[in-house]
Amino acid sequence: MAAAAAPRAATASQSHAPAEGAGAEGGFAIYVHWPFCASKCPYCDFNSHVRHGGVDEPRFAAALVRELETAADRTERRRPDSVFFGGGTPSLMSPATVGAVLDAVDRLWGLDASAEVTLEANPTSVEAGRFAGYRAAGVGRVSLGVQALDDAALAALGRRHTADEALKAVALAQSIFPRVTFDLIYARPAMTAEVWAAELKRALAIGTDHLSLYQLTIEEGTPFAALHAAGKLHVPDDDTAADLYELTQALTEAAGMPAYEVSNHARPGQESRHNLVYWRGGGYVGVGPGAHGRLEQDGVRRATAAERNPERWLAAVEAAGHGLVVDEPVDAAERADELLLMGLRLSEGVDLARHARHAGRPIEPARIAPLVADGLLAWTPAGRLAATPRGRLVLNTLIAALAA
Predict the structure, then answer these.
(1) Buried b vs exposed e over 35-48: b needs ≥16 C-beta within 10 Å?
(2) Is 53 helix (H, G, I), strand (E, B) or coil?
(3) pLDDT tier at 272 (50, 70, 90 boundaries)?
(4) Is 382 within 8 Å of 376 (Cβ atoms)?
(5) Is the pTM of this model over 0.70?
(6) What average pLDDT does this structure show over 36-47?
(7) Three-class DSSP category at 84
(8) Which residues does 176 contact at the CB level (< 8 Å), separation at least 6?
(9) Where is mean pLDDT largest: 4-8, 295-299, 311-315?
């Protein structure tokens, strides 16, 4: 694959005009799931798997390409706004596998030089050593799973890197990729406002243009859930967590990186284009074990999900060209609810006219007015309905009230 710095030339087969109609709203993206990790973090409920005996990477790479080909046969041929390698730990892939997948996307849909191509990576020294290879393969944005800037916290979270390794990986990534983001987890056990303020200020001083800041949540079926149930893991109570959230908003706002989504902060123009496709209700192809998608096929929006077990997914793709276990139409009510669920996460809010087109009716003003009066919802200058910072703390309540 040509180096990402060189513009991609469109061939005749790649010159796909943007599709009109339902699929054109919100953009179009491609998600590639690499399900393997070196170890499983105790808080994680993602579809990730440890294979101590190794992974047959060439077989999985070929299967990802095969599943992309099958998806391309049934979707509108639109150039993707973004390609996102998520996981699991995509930085366990070789750059050659990343390049093969991007070559397939380019062949099947056409991939402009301006498209956002993101790869999630862990900041260990081994994985950071592959950064130059990923850049040459076509990755322009890396998302680093830093999670904490404190060694004791990293050990408690089951991370395999130190704070020093993380800082060095961020610096290396900044020297190689045009765009760099990293994750931090707050509301960790025993975390105080003073501890979080110091850590977040340190993160903001690093100089990236995007940060993902997540509150630690106890997910069912994880080791943290078992420890929490046994009284051996104590996380901040709801009031303390809310205070930490409000502190997060204040510090990021002051640093010029306001929240454009509940947990994501960026300087203007540096928002994640891939995730905006999800939150704006766009269309996306998902390939790989457990990947979800929202496809526009013959004017009908369809929800897809693949087999979660990597080996069963692999066998299915090799036999049938895909690993889908869910492939069903999304009805109007579900589509409208998705627009609310995702759109209210964004500071730009929800276009209620678009919502009404899908729902078949507008939201009754009598359901909106009390929430606006209570300071939980507000109208944006563009005429959209958005959750206020206080409203984001009770987002599920707002969605239930509006979708009733």
Answers:
(1) bbbeeebbbbeebb
(2) coil
(3) very high
(4) no
(5) yes
(6) 88
(7) strand
(8) 131, 132, 135
(9) 311-315
Peptide bond into 158 cis (omega under 30): no
Domains of the chain: 14-277 (3.20.20.70), 332-404 (1.10.10.920)
Tokens (6 digits) for 105: 């996307």
- Residue 303, Cβ density class (10 Å: 0-12 exposed, 13-18 middle, ≥19 buried): middle
* C-alpha 20 chain-centroid distance: 25
Q: Given the structure tokens 């243009």, which residue do they identify? A: 209
CA 53 to chain centre: 29
Continuous segment of H or E residues that includes residue 183 = strand 179-186
- Give per-residue burial for 257-278: e unless 16+ CB within 10 Å, then b: bebbbbebbbeeebbbbbbbbb
Give residue 40's identity as a one-letter amino acid code: K
Percent of the chain residues past pLDDT 90, beyond the cut: 80
Tokens 């609810």 belong to: 337
d(CA 118, CA 113): 13
Map 108-139 to HEC letters. Answer: HCCCCCCCEEEEEECCCHHHHCCHHHHHHHCC
For residues 53 and 73, what is the distance between their CA atoms, to the nearest angstrom? 35
Are 358 and 339 in contact, with CB atoms under 8 Å apart? yes
Residues whose CB falls within 8 Å of the CB of residue 286, separated by 6 or more in sequence, listed in order: 30, 31, 33, 292, 293, 304, 305, 306
Per-residue CA distances from 104 to 8, 74, 110, 118 (Å): 13, 16, 9, 16
- pLDDT band at residue 82 under the 50/70/90 scheme: very high
Give 3's pLDDT tier (boundaries 50, 70, 90): very low
Which parts of 204-321 are beta strand (E)? 210-215, 259-261, 264-266, 283-287, 292-297, 300-306
In three-state secondary structure terms, 212 is strand
Is pLDDT of 329 > 90? yes
Query: Residue 95 is encoded by which pair of tokens?
Result: 């750059």
